[in-house]
Amino acid sequence: MKIVTAKQMRDIENRCFAEGISPDELMESAGKAVAHCAFNHAQKLNQFSIGVLAGPGNNGGDSLIAAKYLYQWGAEVNVFICGERSLKDKKLMLLTQKNLAIYDTKIDAGAEKLRELLPRMNVVIDGIFGLGLNRPIDDMISASIIAVNNEKNRRHNLVVISVDVPSGINSDTGSIDANCIYADVTCALGRPKLGFYRFPGAKYVGKVEVNQIGILREFDGCEMPELMTHSWAERILPSRPLDAHKGDFGRILIIGGSKNYVGAPSLAAIGALRVGGGLVTVAVPEGIFNSVASNCLEPTYIPLPEITGGGLSPEACNILIEEIPKYSVVLIGCGLGLEIETQNMLEKILYDTDNLPPVVVDADGLNLLSRYSGEKWSERFKSPAIITPHPGEMRRLWGKEDVMSNEDRLIQSSVAAQLWNKTVVLKGPFTVAASGEGHTMVSPFANPSLATAGTGDVLSGVIAGFLAQGLSLMDAGPLGVYVHGLAGSRLRDELGDSGILAGDLLPVLPRVIKEIKESTRN
What was the pLDDT predicted at 478? Predict the structure, then answer.
């Protein structure tokens, strides 16, 4: 599913009109979709008192159509006209003929009637502004937004549903007005909007429910970023034939661990196995081998010789170069440490190993890459690879401290992927995956429960596990992100947004894969 800017959405709509779909048809579909969303939430609460805030533009028109359907379905509907709207508007005239309660904020400038009636409502539809907002919201309309937000703060069971875009959010940049409505649900029409996945606007969007209102996929442009979804994930999940054996699902070599980071390679190894990887071998310094192996029984191991002080010896590099051809994927970096001997080993493997299989580079592997002081690291590291930086690691790989503002995560990821000819997975809220060919995907998940040590190691293992099962770089990276994010979302639903450990994700991974497979069959 493509993510669009306001201009792209308007271009898509114009293509619809050129194909014979009328604006009224699209608006009718949009309004009915909003009505269904509102009615479903009211039904969950078993209360059907619904307030509709209708603005001056198309969002207001969608809202008035929603009000019509909700009234027909038996809901108690109060409509509040926010801004200039002609009394001859056919949608408004129809509601007047049905004797719906309609209030005009021009007359009730302080939103007093809205404040009076809000306590009896269980759902509010915000249809004030949408794609077209490009100016500050005036005081008259702000009064209505403030009234809804205050009621929401007072009464958390009030459900606020925004039509297409919450009023006050710039749908492209995610910037917000001084008064911006807090939505529980954003009923996106046709396509999700770019500003949903950029802060601060992302804090106001709530759950995004995308409604297909008759806009065909062939109207989308290939340059648009794509949202990771259940249906997309189901299409690319690796198959599991009945007559399969472990060799069919890949051999993964994980190179990592150091005296200060004993757990990282274990988390990555189990992550790879939990998503279906066939065989995992963990290569760790011999000084921590017993600790790692005693806590992680499923992988096989290669203990690596060390020098005094804990760095890996030159012999370790020779062992690895001999072993690597036996594997279908190499994951390097989880807890690896930053000793100069380790850096020498990493450079020898990534820069000088012939026929290196696809590689996932994470954590200290990225930090060591960024140290390379001769030619740019990307000019030496030619093999197919997925790199998984967080923003700090991304800055170091760029060699710049002035990049990676939240606003340009998509741009920076795409530029970096094409410049370095690598698949880049830029971690964080709404993780971005970008390919060297210009394809960009965005995760729908922003989850503070995953902001804890070790979750990145699990993610890199998950990506390696999918890569080993034969997926392409640009399928394995985003699919790993989506499955990992969905597991985190399910844990957050159960346990809340704090106290979740990286290891808690591991048993949930196969459950969410099962959920993805079954969701499209029901």
Answer: 98
